[in-house]
Structure formats: structure tokens, C-alpha cells
Specification:
mainly alpha, 10 helices
Length: 248
Amino acid sequence: MPDCAGLRRIHGIADSVSDDEVAEQAFERRRAQTGGSDFLQVHLHRVLVISCVMRDAEQIRIWSIGAPLEDERATIQRFYEGIERYVPQLVSWNGGGFDLPALNYRALANGVSAPRFWEWGDEDRDFRYNNYVNRYHTRHLDLMDVLAMYQPRNNAPLDEVARLAGFPGKIGMEGGAVWKQFRAGEVQRIRDYCEADCANTYLLYLRFLQLRGVYTPERYRSECALLRAFLEKQKGGHWREFLDRWKE
């Protein structure tokens, strides 16, 4: 969502101007720059929540980092501390095009430490030819970028690709509605939306592993069943809607 405090510093806007007015001024400037779109540049966003799916050798779970009263720095730092601890493969949809650049700028602005994420192989040789930063490495796999063969003209939205594959797609809202929902106090709804996006991305990743022959059809079905069993135990209307839409 818009970083209103940062926009005040950049444009010399008085503290007396409301966040709504600051954001609307930023949207107007952006529309003038782009000819219509008011989606702000990545460095002008503030991180409210980071949602994750984690699959390890024993289980799968989905959760969100970032509470309504938790500051942005703490949210981002916790995400990178997870990378320090687990050194996971990161899988995203357009993560190289938006999510990770946004996190990079916001981590820099907030003084966050993320040595494992930024390891290029100087300290750990295992990262020399497979690190989180290189576009063509797999320690971070931007699934959309790979499926598009690294050609931006072939990029496709997560919602449409997920629905084509028989998965639920977006639940409850669109990304462009986050600011409006935040101003209405609907932080939980934003978290639900982000978590559902993660589940869609994970299901597409499982299908991708089957596509590559890494998973047999039987293994693919068992992994889907594991996710379904996890979601059936969760509370929340977004997961009920997700399961109702998930047709195999």
C-alpha cells in the first residue's frame, strides 16, 4: 500500500495533510506519468503483510507475517530471518517483477539485515551458481517468468492461469483494493487475500513439478491432497470459499 510517510518526505508534504490526501496526490501523479494506471512504483509501497506457504519434509502450513500493530521493519526482518533459518527455495508469481524488488527497496529503507538472501557465493560457494538474486537461478523461482520464457510479452496474471488449471484464483478482492480495504480497517481480509494467492501459487508450482517430470501424477495428487487436508482444518471463510472453488 502507499508509503504515505515516505511520500511526505519526498514531496515535502505537511504532516497536517491526511494519508488519504497524500495517497490520492501520489495516484494522480502516477496516472499522469503512465497515462492511466495509478499503481505506484515499487519503492513507494509500504509492506503490510507477507504471506507464505511452507512445505518441509513433514508437513505443509500457510501463515502470514505482519500484525496490524507490527511495524514494517519488523515484518520484513521476520521474513528474511526465515530465509536465514531455513534457506528455502522461494517460489513466486511475478516475484522478480514486483514482490522481491519491493521488499529490497523497503528493506533498504528500513535498515533490515538479510545476509543469506544477498549471498552471491563469496562466503558460501553453494550460492555462486544458485542464489536468490540471479534471474536464471532456481533458489528463487519466479514461476510466471519461467513459464513466459523470460519474455514480458508472455506474462499472465495469476488469477487467470490458476482458473485455467482448475484452481480457485483470487478470493475476495483484487490487489488494487488493498489500500481501500486498509483504510476501512479490513486488515484480516487483506491477509486472507494474500494467503489465498499463496495457495494458488503453490498449486501451480505442484502442477509445474508434474510438468517437468519431477513429480509423478501419483505424487502430484498426494501433495494436493496434503494441502487440501491442511485447508480443511483451517478456520476462515476464505478457505471454505477456496475449497468450494477448487475442482480437481
